[in-house]
Design brief:
The protein is globular. Strand 5, helix 24 and strand 6 form a beta-alpha-beta unit. Helix 11 packs antiparallel against helix 14. The N and C termini lie far apart (117 Å). Helix content is 49%, strand content 6%. The protein is α/β, with parallel strands linked by helices.
């Protein structure tokens, strides 16, 4: 029994192993599966012979048969099948059940007309052919790639060999060998060249920083002008000259114990130090610092001459918004020499620093190794010191700048101990007394308004109720709705009457049409916070009703310092948007859209679109007069087109013109004002600028008259609010005298309605209109139109009646109010805040609370419909 069940392993069992000879394929029907061996003896099928080939492949005439276990059945079709199986059963290799199963399979597969395995064989054959074709394709591609690689490699090798041979030929020249020998001999001493000492670095640091402070201060001053008959001794002339004033700024450290020079040295020295520690390359940091400070000094000098204002942090938005190139167009011709000279100096300075960088054996200001920072103690200490110095220098610079205008902070205390007396409401005077670098750094961090002690939701609800009641009172006597008319708000760049400036006279009137118009419609003079600049500030006041005088003195430009951080900004055009339940307000400006961030700000204001010369689409009309900017006539034509497209729908249109913007070179071809100028005491440059400006005002006067005639032909009510934002900064002779300061801050304005308006021909009383501020224009327009008002407009109406004009502008006269805000009565006289009535003081206090709530507070009034008609 044991012999019958257990297989016996012996060498003779391999006598039935197949010879692996490929035989001719036979058809499956009626075929016989048998081992591929030369011996055809039937004994080859004996179980004793097969028992030694478990788990082996049996190669037959058809295909391999895989045996996976001892119990795997084997099917052999045809004669001799049964004897073999019986013999296998008797040996115990195959069971009877398996034999019966195989007989059933054999009988089923031998049935005629049912070739079951033929489709499977076709699929297998197709797959084999596809695999073979794919393999062949890949093989061909591989051979091609290898061949291409070999060809490329050969070409590179050939080229490299040619270059190498050429190089060897070149260096074998006798002259070249002499040069090589020279440098080989010089390399040793060059490698051992001296490292400049830290004491030398300190000397360069001190001299360069001092030079930049002096250059910045030099750019603040201007040469004094004297009347021809005046007797001024030579010593006085020297002391009052630019050189004399600059020398005094430095020497006052010893003569007057005022250390503003040292304060500016610290301010920009921290910038220099941070560059050195961050870059860790002294000479590279020196080039960057010198170039940046020189460019800043030149720009500051030009702006001081044009606008009586230094460079401010908010001005950097011009450059960051891609307008740096356009700023160059504002450089007057008489300042071009300064620009060219500065460029020349910077070129030589950079070359000198480059030479010193090459000669200096010290490559790093502080030794460090970023690749191997912990390889030795020297690298550990050096790398740690370098990182720590960079971090601390940045922290110190930021901390100093961030706290310079915060009373009680460490840098503010340090600055005041050195003689710092901030005058933020007058940046011109602040820069002259404290230095432009200190002025700039003190305005980096700005807080719009301090929270009033009485500010709360309950307080604001009381104010809302008070002025809602006042609005209802005003509205009972008014018949019209503000949004039934189209309102066009026109800021005419630098427009003002030059004949009002002391010392300026012409034989002909530059603005006869507007002068005549002012006699028959609501008009007067506007108190402007700017002189020579500040357009966006006056524009902000007219659109929002807010007054810069209520903000902290450090807030110089709301468009750049406040509006970008506000989520919701209220402007008067939104009254029209609410009325039409859409965006019914449009803005136009014939210049660049990003100046003063107007593009992004106007979106917050709710204007449907803003068209400029670089918007998409751009302004349709962009004609120029000679070499000037886009003319006012073209700017007006864009507004006319918008009105024609409105289908009679009321809308709000904002237009800021550009024609009379500085500079005022002699660019008008036919300027009759050159011959008509009868002014006295002007130098040649001042006279040229004034004559050019007067010609521009004449063009504006004619274009405005034509524009109003066109509006009269439109059969829908239209009201125009027209005002000049500020006077141009070209009246150097008049600006020398303090008594002319108020006059230089008064521009012209008028409010006019076309013939289709019920308010056509209206004119407010002189007490209500002779003097105003741009923040009161919308309230005055509502009164002119006999239109109902919102609670906010009711407040502005009340404030305007009590304080006709208020503004923060360049004034050092403490009698003018708080030192930063000036107030005018109905006759245009300056009044002190303490002399105002208790009612006026209460109105101003309510005004301040409302402005805080809408700009820096929690916006409680937005929940009370404060800006909508009751």
């Amino acid at each position: 029994m044991k012999d019958a069940t257990m297989p016996i392993y012996s060498p003779d069992r391999h006598t039935c192993a197949p010879s692996y000879v490929k035989l001719t394929k036979q058809p499956i029907a009626g075929g016989t599966y048998r081992p591929l061996a030369n011996d055809e003896d039937s004994n080859a099928c004996a179980p004793s012979a097969l028992s030694g080939h478990h788990s082996s492949k049996l190669y037959t005439q058809k295909s391999a048969i895989h045996a996976t276990s001892d119990n795997t059945s084997i099917f052999i079709s045809g004669a001799g099948t049964l004897p073999c199986l019986l013999e296998m059963v008797s040996s115990g290799s195959v069971s009877k059940a398996e034999i019966d199963n195989n007989e059933q399979i054999a009988s089923s597969e031998l049935q005629p007309h049912q070739p079951a395995e033929q489709p499977l064989n076709q699929v297998v054959s197709v797959c084999k052919r596809a695999a073979h074709a794919t393999a062949k394709t890949l093989s061909t591609a591989g051979h091609t790639a290898v061949k291409a690689t070999k060809v490329t490699g050969h070409a590179i090798h050939t080229a490299a060999t040619a270059v190498k041979n050429a190089w060897h030929t070149f260096i074998n020249f006798k002259a070249v060998q002499l040069i090589i020998k020279f440098f080989r001999k010089a390399y040793g001493p060059w490698k051992k060249r001296m490292r400049f000492s830290y004491a030398f670095y300190a000397i360069v640091f001190t001299l360069l920083t001092s030079a930049e402070v002096i250059f910045l201060q030099w750019g603040v001053y201007s040469e004094p002008e004297y009347v021809e008959d005046s007797e001024v001794d030579y010593t006085t002339q020297i002391l009052q000259s630019v050189a004399g004033q600059t020398t005094r700024f430095v020497s006052q450290m010893w003569l007057e114990q005022k250390y503003q020079f040292l304060l500016n040295f610290i301010g920009i020295g921290l910038i220099y130090l941070a560059l050195v520690f961050v870059l860790n390359r002294f000479w590279i940091a020196t080039v960057i610092f010198g170039a940046a400070m020189t460019a800043y000094g030149v720009a500051n000098s030009i702006k001081m001459g044009l606008r009586n204002e230094p460079i401010l942090p908010s001005d950097l938005s011009f450059v960051s918004n891609g307008n740096g190139g356009s700023l160059l167009s504002f450089i007057p011709k008489d300042q071009q020499a300064l620009v060219n000279g500065a460029i020349t100096v910077l070129i030589w300075f950079s070359c000198a620093c480059l030479l010193l960088f090459v000669l200096d054996g010290r490559r790093r200001f502080i030794h460090c190794s970023w690749k191997h920072p912990s390889s030795n103690a020297k690298n550990i200490i050096g790398t740690s010191s370098r990182a720590l110095a960079a971090i601390l220098s940045i922290v110190l610079l930021v901390s100093y700048t961030w706290n310079l205008n915060i009373p009680g902070a460490w840098s503010y205390t340090l600055a005041t101990n050195l003689g710092y007396k901030p005058v933020p409401w007058n940046t011109y005077e602040d820069a002259k007394s404290n230095g432009p670098a200190t002025t700039f750094q003190s305005l980096v961090r700005v807080k719009a308004m301090d929270k009033p002690s009485e500010y709360s939701k309950k307080t604001m609800e009381k104010i809302a109720a008070r002025y809602t009641k006042e609005a209802n009172k005003i509205n009972t006597s008014r018949a019209n709705i503000l949004t039934d008319s189209t309102v066009i708000l026109i800021l005419s760049e630098s427009f003002s009457d030059p004949l009002r400036v002391p010392g300026i006279s012409f034989d002909i009137d530059p603005m006869p049409n507007i002068r005549a118009l002012k006699d028959v419609t609501t008009s007067g003079l506007m108190l402007s916070p700017g002189y020579g600049g500040g357009t966006a500030n006056i524009e902000y006041q007219s659109l929002t009703g807010m007054n810069l005088a209520n903000f902290n003195d450090q807030l110089i430009s709301p468009y750049q310092q406040l509006v970008p951080s506000q989520k919701n900004v209220y402007t008067f055009n939104q009254i029209w948007n609410d009325a039409c339940q859409a965006q019914c307000s449009y803005a136009f400006h014939p210049y660049l859209k990003n100046f003063y961030l107007r593009d992004s700000n106007y979106k917050k204001f709710g204007f449907k679109y803003f068209r400029t010369i670089d918007s998409k689409p751009a302004l349709k009309y962009q004609d120029h007069i000679d070499a000037g900017y886009v003319s006012d006539a073209s700017a007006y034509q864009n507004v006319i087109d918008q009105l024609n497209q409105s289908d009679g729908e009321s809308q709000f249109i904002q237009l800021v013109t550009m024609q009379n913007h500085l500079p005022y070179g002699d660019y008008y071809t036919n300027n009759e004002f050159k011959e008509a100028d009868t002014s006295t005491g002007l130098d040649e440059n001042e006279e040229v600028q004034i004559d050019t400006y007067a010609k521009g005002i004449s063009y504006t006067d004619q274009a405005t008259a034509t524009f109003l005639d066109q509006l009269n032909m439109i059969e829908q009510p239209i009201t125009v609010i027209f005002y000049g934002d500020h006077l141009p900064g070209i009246y150097a002779s008049a600006a020398k005298y303090k008594e002319n300061q108020l006059t230089l801050h008064e521009s012209d304005y008028f409010i006019w309605s076309n013939s289709s308006s019920s308010s056509a021909g209206s004119k407010l009383s002189p007490e209500e209109s002779d003097y105003s501020s741009s923040n009161f224009f919308m309230a005055s327009a509502a009164e002119h139109m006999d239109a109902k008002v919102t609670p906010f407009l009711a407040l502005l109406t009340e404030v305007h009646q009590s304080v006709p004009a208020a503004g923060r502008f360049a004034s050092t006269d403490a009698d003018w109010g708080t030192g930063s805000t000036s107030y005018l009565d109905s006759s245009g006289q300056l009044i002190k805040k303490k002399n105002l009535s208790s009612e006026a003081k209460q109105l101003l206090e309510d005004y301040r609370l409302i402005q805080y709530d809408q700009t820096a507070g929690k916006g409680y009034l937005s929940e009370n419909w404060f800006n909508r008609v009751p």
